[in-house]
Write a structure and sequence with these properties.
- The complex is a heterotrimer.
- Chain A has one domain: Orthogonal Bundle (MetI-like fold), CATH 1.10.3720.10.
- Chain A is built from twelve helices and no strands.
- By secondary structure, chain B is α/β, with parallel strands linked by helices.
- Chain B has eleven helices and twelve strands.
- An eight-stranded mixed sheet of chain B has the order 6-7-8-3-9-10-12-11, sandwiched between helices. In chain B, strands 2-1-4-5 form a four-stranded antiparallel sheet, covered by helices on one side.
- In chain B, helix 4 packs across helix 5 and helix 4 runs parallel beside helix 7.
- Classes of the chains: A mainly alpha, B alpha/beta, C mainly alpha.
- Chain A: It is a multi-pass membrane protein.
């Protein structure tokens, strides 16, 4: 008939002979499942390479990324940008700098953009969501009021188109890489807030919290000691996935001209945005950084999805 | 000729990277028209897989192998193509599942779930189908059926849901009904009512019933013939009376001993079977029940015990069977 | 049901009120002002003050906000500072383009995504399954504007299959009624105009659809897989029902619940993608206009547009909640 593999697995397991039945914790078990998941391994491999390039990139780059060595040969106005050669494997960029060096050095900035903007979103979002969740779960009438005010604000943020929010932040702070990081980070705040709050409210209604309350454990202690750690899984998964979207969104903001106006420090998003103008002359200039962004984002996405699957209690049978 | 003749049914599940599992391992039994046959065993003994195999509901995909034959009239239920099976399912062979809440579609009304069978197999539509559905709900003892038809599963009580599922199963007056633990998910008081309903339906319509259960109480009250399954094989098979009066396989006695009895002495202990279903020996290496058996002897291990047939078609698979000094009552 | 909708619409009022205050303060805090945009860097302080005074920006914030609210209640959004036209007129001229683009993208995403996700789930482990899972993972990771450029380069510049920019060929001289170009063409029976507008929508629509499509494929697949393991699907099969009934009534109907939720969430996010896509294809929607309005500090345009967009967003979510309760009787609202 069809795929009913889950049922089969369960039937198979019921009829299976002895299997090890160790009581392992959620995280140990999740880690084991991630390790056994081939897509997760591909994701991790991509990320290891990416981080390595980000660390050692500046040392292995054959030329300085800011040196206009090919200035004389490049006439972008007339449609002349020399392509790959023996000395310059990926050719020059539109200002005559070595493209390969810029890519190698740019990895670091790109990684930083992803990490910092995710951290901004995670910190603020977790703070708002954590307070709302703790208040909603344990705080009685006042708590519910705090929760509903915070969540209304989060809802308003969600009702704003995220790009407009980012653009207006950029307008406030002026175009720069920091701006991009802050804008991308702020945009992800509502997601983190909603996720953590939702998970905490669900945890607060569970039996063990009732048990702890009935044993007379202090409410703040329950919230911090029990509810919060048990609610972190979806937030961590989301953070991994946000690393991917942050890099992509940063590229979009650069494309709209909100990135660093000074292209001396190379960053993939900015390189991609700038290269759009020379798409007819040298499509490679856009394709290299685009591939870098896509592959890196894919690495984070694969890992995030694998973690989500590994941590999903429904799939943990 | 029996209504259903199952011969050497075997089902194996092979999963990538894991040992293949023989969930059902050469099970044979037959069902006469109008007869009630019990398949008894603990969870994991292969009884549910048997029922799904007979219904053709095991997924046909890599890793699932079904062997043997199950003759239902002239058709072999295990080898029939999906199209013919669709015509048979619900019309000639119907099934009642264990958990009535999860077995009903939560987002459509009970009425449609009943009438869709009538439309599919009896061509009834519109008002005719509704009238027939009302009648069916009435027959399975659901009060105020016109109102219930418009309700959703979550609005019904557990017993009511199981009655609705039964109504769907008997909608086309099937020749064979397979009930997989139909009362396990219900309250004790409701269990008796549902069993009573099933008994009545079977008696009135002459439908044969395969009753799958782990509860010997259910068997004692309903079944004409009983097959006890352990680790995918029939270990004992007999008519109801001889089985209860003179159980031969230690597993059967174990199951009987686990049931608390009113007439037992106050200090007398329940005879629980040691270990769990997971403590099995693979059949080729000997008796699968040996690790848990109190009557184990050396001969139990080494080669699989054969199914020996005793008097009155009472068969058992044991090298050191229990025996009562009393002769078998006829 | 009607009471639920009314209650939700009433809840909309405080949300919008709060949003308008936040937005108002936020916009006024942006450095610079419309006078900088109008005068550039050379304006004298006197000239700047004069312009601020003319625009009423010299008064206290509270009074400015009160005036804005008073107009707003009469559904008057004011006049754009940079184009000197009614904000509402500007909106009605540009928003239909964005809506057309968004709807096209959503039709592509849903029309392809749900069947593909369903098939992938039913044939779990097949090539189709791996391809759609892999494809959707990659789809999420491709920057929308890059995909837009690639599509444009291949299908319109190289193969010349689709137009590369705009919403319609201006030489057709199509009649405008609603500013939904496809709709206008159908209403006036100018079939070639309708077809041409549709043709202009395809490439930007595909670019914009990429991310929602990827997400819908994934959620459909996951949801169908979960439903397939449910007991009631087995019950439906045990009744001997035909494939179509099982698929429609028993599998998809149940699987739709999470899909509908995700579609609602995606519709909000589509607007951001639309801004990027519109830029690449020089497609005149609200995208470029809003972006300019931010750099020009065109307060009335920003306030008006964003408020209306927020209303739309809330309405879409209301629609999602309503269809949710239509699908699932267990969450039926009173």
């Amino acid at each position: 008939m069809s795929t009913k593999t889950d049922k089969i697995d369960r039937l198979g397991e019921l009829t299976a002979a002895k299997q090890d039945e160790h009581g392992v914790s959620l995280w140990t078990e999740a880690f084991r499942r991630v390790r056994r998941n081939p897509t997760a391994l591909v994701g991790i491999a991509i990320l290891v390479i990416f981080v390595l390039v980000a660390i050692i990139g500046p040392w292995v780059a054959p030329y300085s990324p800011t040196d206009f060595i090919g200035k004389g040969e490049v006439r972008s106005g007339q449609g002349i940008i020399p392509g790959p050669s023996a000395e310059h494997w990926l050719g020059y960029d539109h200002q005559g700098r070595d493209e390969l060096s810029r890519l190698l050095v740019g990895a670091r900035q790109t990684l930083l953009v992803g990490i910092i903007s995710t951290l901004i979103g995670l910190t603020i979002g977790a703070l708002v969501g954590g307070i709302a969740g703790a208040a909603a779960g344990l705080g009685g009438r006042v708590g519910r009021a705090v929760d509903s005010v915070l969540m209304r604000i989060v809802d308003m943020l969600l009702a704003l188109p995220s790009l407009l929010l980012a653009v207006s932040i950029a307008a406030l702070l002026g175009a720069s890489l920091t701006t991009v990081m802050i804008a991308v980070g702020v945009v992800s705040v509502p997601i983190f807030a909603r996720l953590l709050r939702g998970a905490m409210v669900a945890q607060a209604n569970s039996d063990y919290v009732l048990a702890a309350t009935s044993l007379g454990v202090k409410r703040t202690k329950i919230a911090i000691g029990h509810i919060l750690p048990n609610s972190l899984a979806p937030v961590i998964v989301q953070a991994t996935l946000t690393l991917a979207t942050a890099i992509i969104e940063a590229a979009a903001l650069s494309f709209l001209g909100l990135g660093n106006p000074d292209s001396a420090t190379p960053e993939w998003g900015l390189m991609l945005a700038e290269a759009q103008r020379f798409l007819d002359i040298r499509p490679g200039l856009a394709i290299y950084p685009a591939l870098g962004i896509i592959i890196t984002a894919l690495g984070f996405t694969l890992l995030g999805e694998a973690m989500r699957e590994a941590l999903d209690p429904k799939l943990r049978k | 000729m029996p209504l259903l003749d199952v011969k050497d049914l075997s089902v194996t599940f092979a999963r990538r990277g894991q040992r293949t599992v023989r969930a059902v391992d050469g099970v044979s039994f037959s069902v006469e028209a109008g007869e009630v046959v019990g398949l008894v065993g603990e969870s994991g003994c292969g009884k549910s897989v048997t029922s799904l195999a007979l219904m053709g509901l095991l997924p046909k995909q890599r890793g699932v192998t079904i062997g043997g034959s199950a003759m239902f009239g002239d058709t072999d239920l295990l080898k029939t193509d999906e199209r013919t099976m669709r015509d048979i399912r619900g019309r000639d062979v119907a099934m009642i599942f264990q958990d009535p809440l999860s077995s009903l579609n939560p987002v459509i009304p009970i009425g449609i779930q009943v009438t869709e069978v009538l439309t599919r197999h009896r061509g009834l539509t519109g008002a005719k189908a509704t009238a027939e559905a009302t009648d069916l709900l009435n027959r399975v003892g659901i009060p105020d059926p016109t109102r219930r038809l418009k309700e959703y599963p979550h609005q019904l009580s557990g017993g009511m849901r199981q009655r609705a599922l039964i109504a769907m199963a008997v909608a086309c007056a099937p020749k064979l009904l397979i009930a997989d633990e139909p009362t396990t998910a219900l309250d004790v008081t409701i269990q008796a009512q549902i069993l009573e309903l099933l008994r009545g339906l079977v008696r009135d319509s002459g439908t044969a019933l395969v009753m799958i259960t782990h509860d010997l109480g259910v068997v004692a009250g309903m079944c004409d013939t009983v097959n006890v399954l352990y680790a995918g094989r029939v270990v004992e098979s007999a008519r109801r009376k001889p089985l209860f009066a003179d159980p031969r396989h230690p597993y059967t006695t174990g199951l009987l001993g686990s049931v608390p009895r009113l007439d037992a002495g106050k200090g007398e202990r329940l005879h629980a079977i040691r270990g769990s279903v997971r403590d099995v020996l693979p059949w080729p290496d000997g008796c699968a029940f040996a690790p848990r058996c109190d009557r184990r002897v050396d001969a139990c291990v080494g080669e699989p015990p054969a199914l020996v047939e005793g008097v009155h078609r009472h068969a058992y698979r044991c090298v050191n069977p229990e025996s009562r000094t009393v002769e078998v009552p006829s | 049901m009607i009471r639920f909708i009314v209650r939700r619409l009433l809840q909309l009022i405080p949300t919008l009120f709060g949003l308008s205050i936040l937005l108002f303060i936020w916009l006024r805090r942006l450095p610079g002002g419309p006078e900088t945009a109008i005068l550039g860097e050379r304006g004298t302080p006197e000239l700047r003050a004069q312009i601020r005074k003319n625009l009423g920006l010299d008064e206290p914030l509270l009074i400015q906000y009160g005036r804005f609210m008073k107009r707003m209640l009469k559904l008057d959004l004011g006049t754009s500072i940079s184009t000197k036209r009614e904000v509402m007129t500007e909106f009605l001229e540009r928003f239909p383009g964005t809506v057309e683009l968004t709807i096209t993208a959503m039709i592509i995403a849903i029309g392809v995504g749900i069947p593909l996700g369903y098939l992938a789930a039913r044939r779990r482990g097949s090539f189709l399954d791996s391809a759609s899972v892999g494809g959707s993972l990659i789809g999420i990771c491709v920057p929308v504007f890059f995909l837009a450029y690639v599509l444009k380069a291949i299908f319109s510049e190289n193969l010349q299959l689709f137009p590369s920019s705009g919403r319609q060929d201006p030489t057709l001289g199509a009649t405008r009624i609603t500013n939904f170009f496809v709709l206008d063409g159908l209403m006036t029976r100018e079939w070639d105009a309708a077809l041409d507008a549709l043709w202009h929508l395809i490439l930007p629509g595909i670019a914009l659809a990429s991310i929602p499509l990827a997400i819908i494929v994934r959620i459909t697949r996951a949801s169908v897989l979960e439903v397939l393991s449910e007991d009631y699907v087995r019950t439906a099969q045990s009744k001997g029902l035909n494939e179509r009934t099982i698929r429609g009534r028993h599998i998809l109907r149940n699987a739709m619940l999470p899909i509908v939720t995700v579609i609602g969430l995606l519709t909000g996010g589509l607007l951001s993608g639309a801004v990027l896509t519109e830029t690449v294809f020089a497609f005149s929607g609200i995208g470029a206009f809003l972006y300019e309005a931010i750099s020009n500090r065109d307060y009335p345009v920003l306030m008006g547009f964003i408020m209306i967009i927020a209303v739309f967003y809330v309405l879409v979510n209301l629609l999602v909640d309503v269809s949710y309760s239509l699908i699932d009787p267990r969450v039926r609202v009173r």
